């Protein structure tokens, strides 16, 4: 029996019209959609009349759900992996499943689209020829400052995610550790 395909599907960031025709087709055609939050993904699916079944796939069930989805892929099912917004795996759940699928020889196909990283870079007015993506900074101040110290000498544009309620504290730590650097805050 042939294995299925794992599709890593980018979803809109804030505007449901920012989704590709290919992404919508894949979401209609797969056997199951692995969603970071099924309630959130349901809004997108309802908007476009997509009735494909969903299963939750988030940081709290990633290990066990990845094994279940890998088994289904090996049995020939096709699976779409989506996050709440943007491209899965990039500071979102999905790495475990993608890694296991690659190791098992299951085809993994990206379905590109919205990415908070490239969207922010495109309008920040900062150099984009070289940049480093850091993901989410640690929540605790001491750990956050140590992480920033690790990258303090990198001269390139630094891109990071931060929760809205921690932005001010993170900016203070950025200033304290990295000094006088140009910053752009995006939402």
Automatic annotation (TrEMBL):
**What NCBIfam families does this protein's entry cite?**
16S rRNA (cytidine(1402)-2'-O)-methyltransferase
The record's gene field reads rsmI
Lineage of producing organism: Bacteria, Bacillati, Candidatus Sysuimicrobiota, Candidatus Sysuimicrobiia, Candidatus Sysuimicrobiales
Q: What GO biological process term is on the record, naming one? A: rRNA processing
Give the protein's recorded name.
16S rRNA (Cytidine(1402)-2'-O)-methyltransferase
The answer to whether keyword rRNA processing applies is yes
InterPro entries with a match to the protein in the record:
4pyrrol_Mease, 4pyrrol_Methylase_sf, 4pyrrole_Mease_sub1, 4pyrrole_Mease_sub2, rRNA_ssu_MeTfrase_I, SAM_MeTrfase_RsmI_CS
Keyword set includes Transferase: yes
Q: List the GO molecular function terms.
A: methyltransferase activity
One Pfam family name from the record? TP_methylase
Superkingdom of origin: Bacteria
The Tetrapyrrole methylase domain sits at 5-186
EC number(s) recorded for this UniProt protein:
2.1.1.198
Keywords in alphabetical order, please.
Answer: Cytoplasm, Methyltransferase, rRNA processing, S-adenosyl-L-methionine, Transferase
């Amino acid at each position: 029996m042939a294995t299925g395909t794992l599709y890593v599907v980018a979803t809109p960031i804030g505007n449901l019209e920012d989704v590709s025709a290919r992404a919508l087709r894949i979401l209609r055609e797969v056997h199951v959609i692995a969603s970071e939050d099924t309630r959130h993904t349901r809004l997108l699916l309802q908007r476009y009349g997509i009735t494909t079944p969903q299963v939750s796939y988030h940081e709290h069930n990633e290990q066990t759900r990845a094994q279940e989805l890998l088994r289904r892929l090996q049995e020939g099912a096709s699976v779409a992996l989506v996050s709440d917004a943007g491209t899965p795996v990039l500071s979102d759940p999905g790495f475990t499943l993608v890694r296991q699928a690659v190791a098992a020889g299951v085809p993994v196909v990206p379905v590109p689209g919205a990415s908070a990283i490239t969207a922010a870079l495109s309008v920040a007015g900062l150099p984009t020829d070289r940049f480093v993506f850091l993901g989410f900074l640690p929540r605790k101040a001491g750990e956050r400052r140590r992480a920033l110290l690790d990258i303090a000498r990198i001269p390139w544009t630094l891109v990071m995610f931060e929760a809205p309620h921690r932005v001010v504290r993170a900016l203070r730590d950025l200033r304290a550790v990295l000094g006088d650097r140009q910053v752009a805050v995006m939402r």
